[in-house]
Amino acid sequence: MIQSDLDLFGPQPQRLASHTVLLPGFALGEIEPLLDALRPVLRAAPFRHMRTPGGLHMAVALTNCGALGWVSDEHGYRYSATDPLSGRPWPALPPVILSLATRAAAMAGFEGFVPDACLVNHYLPGTRLSLHQDRNEQDFSQPIVSLSLGLPAVFLLGGLQRADKTQRVPLSHGDVLIWGGEDRLRFHGVQPIKPGVHPRMGERRINLTLRKAGS
Ligand code: SIN
Ligand code: FE2
């Protein structure tokens, strides 16, 4: 049988490492529902620059939705059930975001992924995120699902040691990147965002990372 599915000609999943998969444009058909869902989250829990344990302000502005949210202050990095700005629980994880993350994870071989935390990062041109591991979560058997919106970025995919060489992974609006399994603790970061104006998102990059942070 000759397949006539138009998806056949769309960008194909790319395996970047044994348990790291890029789904180019995976979210492109759902951008407006995703943004509609994100808007009330950002009203209830605005982007802010958190302090690092060393007392510096992070270049990336962030907020969260979901039962748990990633926070940083002078006491360290951790997950919190409440937004330190408002003292209230974080806004709920919108179903459209949850569904996207679960489907993307399944495409990458992680069936049954149910995130309880969504970190939302805001990058202006020039903002970078230095190499780090995501290790504040309790269960490293669960993957990280990352959705990119707005200005393009170069994601650095490193190894399990900070000094390992990094792979440069261009990420565009609507791309979803998933890493888990033996890649779960790979170092990663984002190169400084190049100046530009994205037609839908303006002069910014927004990245959502979905995690299973609690037990
Ligand atoms: C992160 O590592 O938390 C964010 C990665 C990204 O912005 O692509
Ligand atoms: Fe990270």
UniProtKB/TrEMBL annotation:
GO terms for molecular function: broad specificity oxidative DNA demethylase activity; ferrous iron binding; methyltransferase activity; oxidative RNA demethylase activity. Keywords: Dioxygenase, Iron, Metal-binding, Methyltransferase, Oxidoreductase, Transferase. The keyword Cytoplasm does not apply. GO terms for biological process: methylation; oxidative RNA demethylation. Its cofactor is Fe(2+). Fe cation binds at H132, D134, H188. SUPFAM superfamilies: Clavaminate synthase-like (SSF51197). PROSITE patterns: FE2OG_OXY. Binds 1 Fe(2+) ion per subunit. Pfam families: 2OG-FeII_Oxy_2. One of its GO terms (cellular component) is cytoplasm. Its EC number is 1.14.11.33. This is DNA oxidative demethylase AlkB. It is an enzyme of class 1 (oxidoreductase).
